[in-house]
Amino acid sequence: MTTHALVLTSSILGQQGQSIALAEHFKQRAAGRDDVRVTERDLVAEALPHLEAAELSSWQLAVDERTAEQRELAARSDRLLEELRAHDLLVLAVPLYNLGIPSQLKAWFDRVLRAGETFRYTEKGPQGLLEGKRAIILAARGGQYAGTELDSQTPHLKAMLGLIGITDVQVVYAEGLAMGHKDVAMTEAKQAIDGLVERL
């Protein structure tokens, strides 16, 4: 069975970004597999605007009730949802900016975390509607934060993925990149990626 992987990059440093290097390594290893197909979306090159009320309200109307402008606004999210649904594996290459995720990645999540589309509210709380998908987080960080109170990024990403039903999440960390550990950290992270690709 073919695995369809959607790779999202969000580094403002382009090819100089270490999260981009991790994504490239994943793509190179996946290219060696006949049963893996990769789609990439660069959320910086194809930046989404911050979510505003007009776009949010367009989702809440029936299709035949939308104005031309509202149809255009809703189509932005609809395209991303269609792309996400078409893939089995989501790969997030994520730098750490001020202890959080890049705003470009948040703008993507703001459009795929949609009530009635990717999750629904029940009497017991929200229920994800995209169950059966997997995710890999490739986290590149200048400092060493994993497992500490300062790592708010990992729980945030896992919570957003869990909201839509993606609970099978693997995390690869490349940390201490600005602390003299870059070569070792990147080598170990790439080895971890190799293992994950082998098990796809």
Automatic annotation (TrEMBL):
Query: Tell me, what does this protein do in biology?
Result: Also exhibits azoreductase activity. Catalyzes the reductive cleavage of the azo bond in aromatic azo compounds to the corresponding amines. Quinone reductase that provides resistance to thiol-specific stress caused by electrophilic quinones.
- Domain Flavodoxin-like fold spans what residues? 4-193
- Record-listed FMN binding positions: S11
* Cofactor detail note: Binds 1 FMN per subunit.
Please give the cofactor(s) recorded in the UniProt entry for this protein: FMN
Looking up InterPro entries in the UniProt record yields: Flavodoxin_fold, Flavoprotein-like_sf, FMN-dep_NADH:Q_OxRdtase_AzoR1, NADH:quinone_OxRdtase_FMN_depd
Summary of subunit composition and partner proteins: Homodimer.
The question of whether Nucleotide-binding is a record keyword is answered with no
Kindly report, in one word, the top-level EC class recorded for this enzyme. oxidoreductase
Per its record, the protein catalyses:
N,N-dimethyl-1,4-phenylenediamine + anthranilate + 2 NAD(+) = 2-(4-dimethylaminophenyl)diazenylbenzoate + 2 NADH + 2 H(+); 2 a quinone + NADH + H(+) = 2 a 1,4-benzosemiquinone + NAD(+)
Taxonomic superkingdom: Bacteria
- E.C. number, please? 1.6.5.-, 1.7.1.17
The UniProt entry's sequence similarity note says: Belongs to the azoreductase type 1 family.
Question: What is the name listed in the Swiss-Prot or TrEMBL entry for this protein?
Answer: FMN dependent NADH:quinone oxidoreductase
What keywords tag this UniProt record?
Flavoprotein, FMN, NAD, Oxidoreductase
A Pfam match is Flavodoxin_2
